[in-house]
Design goal:
Blueprint lengths: L6 H24 L8 E5 L5 H9 L4 E4 L2 H14 L4 E4 L8 H7 L2 E5 L2 H14 L4 E5 L16 H10 L5 E5 L8 H14 L4 E3 L6 H6 L4 E4 L1 H4 L9
Parallel strand pairs: 1-2, 1-8, 2-3, 3-4, 4-5, 5-6, 6-7
Helix pairs in contact: 4-5
The structure holds pyridoxal-5'-phosphate (PLP).
């Protein structure tokens, strides 16, 4: 273990992770699902390596970041030190960041338009690196939010497969903050089933148990593991 990581930090963080995992297991069992089909992504955005190291030392290997540039500042070194870490991009992707995103991330949850599909495909070929891919759906059809509109999803998935040669594994959504998340989780599940997609990335600290009831296979949990973030994330 990294000597700068104290046993006290690791024990505290392990307790928090175990508490979240116990809630995941209970929610899966209530829904008649196998808890192993729900994977926990620890969302480490805004936190530096000193806060991430104890989580890795506690044995957790799946992490999520929402900004490519921020992730690039900390994860190449962390990944080099810790084989087996799996890094997920859960924030919006711009085409000028496709190269960095394909190089760094193992799963990208936020493919959401033809330009991004094309840019990611180009980089996958150029780098011979093949992150797993999900499509973000803007289930609340919010102007300020990334994601493809539900009505455009089926056509977009077809173009991902046929024009871009991309294999999409699932869907991701972030419900509007002022609405009942269950409606959005139910919609995402319906869209995934209709398109034969296996993975559903939905649910955060406040609502992951509801998301599991509706079929989540990835839950993205930040606050419940790392504690509160500073009000304004560093840019
Ligand atoms: C920050 C973030 C999360 C985690 O949110 P918490 O409420 O801290 O659990 C999940 N998903 C996305 C896309 C995020 O940006």
């Amino acid at each position: 273990m990294d000597p700068s990581v104290s046993d006290i930090d690791v024990t505290a963080v392990r307790d928090r992770i175990e508490a979240v995992e116990a809630r995941i297991t209970a929610a899966a069992e209530r829904a008649g699902r196998d808890p192993r089909d729900v994977r926990l992504i620890a969302v480490s955005k805004t936190f530096g390596p000193e806060r991430i190291e104890p989580v890795i030392a506690a044995g957790h290997m799946l992490f999520g970041e929402n900004r490519v540039q921020e992730a690039q500042g900390k994860w190449p070194a962390l990944k080099a030190d810790h084989a087996g870490v799996e890094l997920h991009l859960i924030g919006p992707l711009q085409s000028n960041k496709a190269r960095d995103a394909v190089a760094l991330f193992d799963v990208i949850h936020t493919i959401d338009r033809p330009k991004i599909a094309a840019a990611v495909k180009k980089e996958m070929v150029a780098q011979n690196r093949h992150p797993r891919l999900l499509v973000q759906v803007n289930t609340g059809e919010e102007d300020q939010k990334a994601g493809i509109a539900p009505a455009d999803l089926d056509g977009f998935l077809k173009s991902c497969a046929e024009e871009h040669g991309l294999q999409i594994e699932g869907l991701m959504c972030i419900p509007p903050i002022d609405e009942e998340p269950a409606l959005h989780f139910a919609l995402l599940k319906k869209l995934a089933d209709r398109n034969g997609l296996r993975e559903l990335s939905m649910g955060m600290s406040a609502d992951f148990e509801t998301a599991i009831a509706f079929g989540a296979t990835y839950v993205r949990v930040g606050t419940a593991i790392f504690g509160p973030r500073a009000a304004k994330p560093p840019v």
